[in-house]
Amino acid sequence: MLLQIKGIISTINLLDIADIVIVAVVLYKLYFMIKDSRAVALLKGLIVLLLATLVSKWLGLNVVNWLLQKSMTVVLVALPVVFQPELRRALEHLGRGRFFQGSSLLNAEEKETLFAEIARTVAVLSKNKIGALIVLERDTGLNDYIETGIKVDGLITSEFLTNVFIPNTPLHDGAVIIRGNRMQAAGCLLPLTEDRSLSKELGTRHRAAIGITEQTDAVVIVVSEETGIISVARGGRLIRYIDCDKLVEHLRPLFAAKPSSLSEFFSWRPPNAR
Ligand SMILES: Nc1ncnc2c1ncn2[C@@H]1O[C@H](COP(=O)(O)OP(=O)(O)OP(=O)(O)O)[C@@H](O)[C@H]1O
């Protein structure tokens, strides 16, 4: 027995170890990607289906086994369709490494100015219960959504941004999209989330904020017209009841200069704050 183990160990070379490490890291990342997501429920369903298939084969239930095998095929074919947004985000994340990415649009000082202007705007809007939807572009281009609105090219200042959301003005309906420190468009239409587990009190403004962050890596700030509550959406999750003074603290890490693509890949976790 000991000799056998020694024999196996002596056949393992560096490439085998690298092979095992890569598979382990990929499985570990995969686990964190699907943890807390709807993929977990689906994975459980698949495991049940797999077990049922094995048991039916073991018991000799030929027709049941045949049916289960066919349904496994159908489920596997349907997976890319059902998880299109998740797959898209994962692939975009891979392609978003430093190697592929242009340099950040803003330097540290410009970012701080932008965040301060946004925080001042949000404070005014929240206090006066003026609804707002502010989308901050990150690495995923938002041109498709910019096209749905009215193009506006202007440096973000608190006065300018506040003005856009004043009720009954032409641009107040829909979302503002910001790239770098410039507004690209206002009155933009965003995709609504289809997440049925969301609280009924969240209307289309909040659902649009979550929707676009499911499909892109954008960060969205929402001010509720009804309550003045400030929320931040990212990665398909909504963090509510954000203190206006703390908004910058929420934004800063999301726009921090990135480490190399490799270390970013290994350190990535799906956002899970709600
Ligand atoms: N798909 C969308 N894309 C962009 N903006 C949208 C979208 N759907 C709704 N909105 C904005 O949200 C407004 C309606 O908000 P609604 O009251 O339905 O949402 P809510 O989440 O309850 O927000 P609030 O708390 O501000 O009332 C619209 O007037 C529009 O400005």
From TrEMBL:
<dbReference type="Pfam" id="PF02457">
    <property type="entry name" value="DAC"/>
</dbReference>
<dbReference type="InterPro" id="IPR045585">
    <property type="entry name" value="CdaA_N"/>
</dbReference>
<keyword id="KW-0812">Transmembrane</keyword>
<dbReference type="GO" id="GO:0006171">
    <property type="term" value="P:cAMP biosynthetic process"/>
</dbReference>
<dbReference type="GO" id="GO:0005524">
    <property type="term" value="F:ATP binding"/>
</dbReference>
<dbReference type="InterPro" id="IPR050338">
    <property type="entry name" value="DisA"/>
</dbReference>
<keyword id="KW-0808">Transferase</keyword>
<keyword id="KW-0548">Nucleotidyltransferase</keyword>
<feature type="domain" description="DAC">
    <location>
        <begin position="84"/>
        <end position="244"/>
    </location>
</feature>
<comment type="function">
    <text>Catalyzes the condensation of 2 ATP molecules into cyclic di-AMP (c-di-AMP), a second messenger used to regulate differing processes in different bacteria.</text>
</comment>
<keyword id="KW-1133">Transmembrane helix</keyword>
<keyword id="KW-0067">ATP-binding</keyword>
<dbReference type="InterPro" id="IPR034701">
    <property type="entry name" value="CdaA"/>
</dbReference>
<dbReference type="InterPro" id="IPR003390">
    <property type="entry name" value="DNA_integrity_scan_DisA_N"/>
</dbReference>
<dbReference type="GO" id="GO:0106408">
    <property type="term" value="F:diadenylate cyclase activity"/>
</dbReference>
<feature type="transmembrane region" description="Helical">
    <location>
        <begin position="12"/>
        <end position="32"/>
    </location>
</feature>
<protein>
    <recommendedName>
        <fullName>Diadenylate cyclase</fullName>
        <ecNumber>2.7.7.85</ecNumber>
    </recommendedName>
</protein>
<dbReference type="InterPro" id="IPR036888">
    <property type="entry name" value="DNA_integrity_DisA_N_sf"/>
</dbReference>
<feature type="transmembrane region" description="Helical">
    <location>
        <begin position="39"/>
        <end position="60"/>
    </location>
</feature>
<keyword id="KW-1003">Cell membrane</keyword>
<dbReference type="Pfam" id="PF19293">
    <property type="entry name" value="CdaA_N"/>
</dbReference>
<keyword id="KW-0547">Nucleotide-binding</keyword>
<keyword id="KW-0472">Membrane</keyword>
<dbReference type="GO" id="GO:0004016">
    <property type="term" value="F:adenylate cyclase activity"/>
</dbReference>
<dbReference type="InterPro" id="IPR014046">
    <property type="entry name" value="C-di-AMP_synthase"/>
</dbReference>
<comment type="subunit">
    <text>Probably a homodimer.</text>
</comment>
<comment type="similarity">
    <text>Belongs to the adenylate cyclase family. DacA/CdaA subfamily.</text>
</comment>
